[in-house]
Amino acid sequence: MKVLFIHADYIKIDVKKKAIADADEIKEKNLESKECLVVFTAVEKDDEKNKTEILNKTIGNIKDVYGKVKAKSIVIYPYAHLSSNLSSPKFAKEMLQEIYENLKQQNLDVIKAPFGYYKAFELKCKGHPLSELSREIKVEGKEEGKEKEKDAIKEEEEITREDVVKDIKSEFFVLTPTGEEYKIDMENLKDNLDNYEIFNKFPTLKKYMLAEELKKVSSVEPPSIKAMVHQELIDYEEASDSGNLRFYPKGALFFDLLSDWAEEIALNRLGAMKIDTPVIYDWSMPDIREQGKSFHERHYMVKVPDNENKEFVLRFAGDFGLFRIMKQTNMSYDQLPIRMYEFSKSFRYEKKGELSGLRRLRAFHMPDIHSFCKDLEQGWDEYENLYKNYNDLANATGIEYTVVFRIVKEFYDKYKEHIINLLKYSNKAAFIEVLSSMKHYWAVKHEFQGIDSVGGNCQLSTVQLDVKDAGLYGINFVDTDGKKKGCIICHSSIGSIERWMFEILESALKTEKPMLPLWLSPTQVRIIPVSKESLNFSDEISYILEKSSIRIDVDDRNETLGAKIRKAEREWIPYIVVIGEKEKESGKFSIRRREDNKNLNLEISELVDEIKSKTANMPFRKLNLPKKLSKRPIFVGYT
Fold this sequence. Notes:
- By secondary structure, the protein is of the alpha+beta class.
- The protein has four domains: 2-161, D-tyrosyl-tRNA(Tyr) deacylase (D-tyrosyl-trna(Tyr) Deacylase, Chain: A); 168-275 and 316-508, Bira Bifunctional Protein, Domain 2 (BirA Bifunctional Protein, domain 2, 2-Layer Sandwich), CATH 3.30.930; 280-314, no CATH class; 518-631, Anticodon-binding domain (Rossmann fold, 3-Layer(aba) Sandwich).
- Helices cover 34% and strands 27% of the residues.
- It has 18 helices and 28 strands.
- The strands form six sheets. A ten-stranded mixed sheet has the order 8-7-18-17-19-20-23-16-15-11. Strands 1, 2, 3, 4, 5 and 6 form a six-stranded mixed sheet that branches. It has a five-stranded mixed sheet with strand order 25-24-26-27-28, sandwiched between helices.
């Protein structure tokens, strides 16, 4: 027997038509229950061999959960989608009827959705730690089997539910790279923020505290929303759902370069194995529902044409497919850590009012790395390595960011010095919440929080040291003693590529003369011929730069020199090279450098050396637009 418990505000059931000949007889087609425990059930073939035991255990489980969540009523709902090994319809019908009658005899308020019908239902899940639980009820033998099943149920409860929040206390600190610890009184922070000298030493951390902990909401639209369009990078697509964007050639190049850097970290630096898994999953499968429960109100649900009663969900992260791969994988202790990488297109049905340019989307791309480790020490080594690599990416993009840790106290006491070393690597102080005991599946996690140009913040990369999920999903390795043990899982994501683009644009827009980091600029050098006579020589110089893996274009349009320079400035071109007869004769070129607004007089080899030194070790792709501006269409933005 497989059972899925949902503690709901209400459920409304609309009985449609018979699905099998031997269906229940019904009196009402519309059923409703409030403040209820909905018990989705699938009776399995093996249950036919142990009817009495399964019946008693199922009733016991229902009463147990019913008492814990303090529901007012029970709804028994036949739900065959929970299992692929179903009993005969006749046996299932009898079992569910006996469960219903037994509970009824105990003076419980219980109703049963009719067996053997197509049904529509509307349900609102409460969303507290015990509101969604799954159980597999079976008999594995005599007394030994009973004890195993009790242990299995106990273990599943411990893994599935979060600890009751009121039993967990939090302390808040700022920890500096030199190991100084400043306790923060969160209850009275709003009126005392300026009194903490530590925040004046680390102003980016202060901005985070204002934006997140004090829930400061800016009424100003982030300027990156207009900039992404004016720069012909990204735009809204009216023909799609909200929060699904389109990328113009320059935006696609920007996106691809960041994706290349994510892959460089995963495959080359860490040696991860790349996989690819589906974006759509069967919502009736218990492990999929368990992984998706925390986002159950933000799912894209999908119907398939040949089975309208079956629901599929678009993934909100790459864990769905990855965990199913790892569950069937044979791993030995001497193969660990095993690192897996997936560039996962993901979907979250964010509320319309929450959508905001590249910051908050319904469709986005997550480069995810998962490390499967044999113990905490190996897991922590992975954690530190991932932290440093994501920090390198943040520095390479030039964004303004801060570090936030959440950690269980025993882990903070044990790894405090390690955290200090990480902060030394970043040269940043961190805001830290220390939890008195375990609250989630992770024992420690951190986030890099980007700060935008209007005082807001958003999460970028994250690493989480997971000590529970392996047991829940059956991801095990064979240890030195030949026994299977659960892995420690280091979840990590570089963060959605779209959010990095948002923060990079926002950081650029904080400056007087915005520009993208040189390695991310679609055009790194623009050559502007003074006249048509200089065009051939300009082409010769452009080929020299192209051979040095520099993205170059040539403004050959029939415009004045001033108009061409103004266009280059509006496009945030890092280097503008003006070429005329003087440059051809002298070999020295008049170059305007955007980052410091300086006019330089350099040889082309000197310009190449400067650009190569500033983009060393960063990904490179060729320009994906026609080199000559006269050949380019105008998509949108400034002309």
